[in-house]
What we know:
Number of helices: 3
Largest sheet: 11 strands, antiparallel
Mean pLDDT: 89
CATH class of the largest domain: Mainly Beta
Helix content: under 10%
Distance between the termini: 45 Å
CATH superfamily of the largest domain: Galactose-binding domain-like
Shape: globular
Amino acid sequence: MTKAAELAKMGEVLTNSQIGGRRNIIINGAMQVAQRATSVSSVTTSGYKALDRFNIDLSSAGTWTISQDTNTPSGFGSSMKFLCTAADASLGSSDRIAFRQYIEGQNVQQLKKGTSDAELVTASFYVKSNKTGTYILEFYDLDNSRHINKSYTVDTANTWEYKTITFEADTTGVLDNDNASSAMLHFWLGSGSSYSSGTLQTSWGANATNNRAVGNVNLADTVDNYWQVTGIQLEVGSQATPFEHASSFGEQLALCQRYYQNDLGGGCFATAQATVYDGLSPMRFPVIMRTAPTIVQSGTLGGTTASATTLNITASGYVFYAGSSSGSGPRGYTTYNATMTAEL
């Protein structure tokens, strides 16, 4: 390689690295954080099930166990595994199994999408499955209903393989600079004809549903089929760089807590005011959330509680209120668990 070529290559790598910030747009790509659960069985519907930041897209396409698994390629401690426990060998037209990560608009401004300077973006990941064949990875612009879809192949059964896919720059459709969903990285694992009867959308274009998963295998066709993944990275540029591990587990946890937090305790004491007992306790989130979250409380409440609720919910915290309309002396009110959800 000539000196000029060497310097050009170095410049390309430095551009990919986004010096001064995280180059990986994906959160929890090493599958370390699982605040909800490390394993969920009998999954038949869409939603956030186990590992943080990854949303399951599932409609009438078998039954699954989704888990955090310790079987990984070298350099990783966890992977996410999809295991088919009830098969569907003949998917209906709108049936599908996939998973995805939604991305805030303010986290993808570096793509310069919709401008003459729009950047290429490269996805890389490690994948392992017993089912060889073609799979589809999709990058979706939610603000402008545009998408691009690329295929990759699982070549050897039961073997970790490293894949890289580059999506071309898109000079159409600027992404909103806000905290709402603007982009989505979508891994297809199986689909019906509504998503696969057209021609694969290998260049950027307006959404055409039947062009999204053309040629994808049906992972749901046999019990015990599995597919697992780790080291998911999405970065600006035409070259995949080595996976960007977080500096610590705590750093990755904090990034996930912007969207979901699981608080294992909180409460207050109600004190007497005539015949009414009221208690207020401020709860401060360890990480400011994306937006004011939905809070679900569960567990046992002590005392003679007439009401227990949350007040003044913001992205920074809330106030827990407990009250009693009768009794004497201080009353203890405790909620043993509260989940805070501000997912995209």
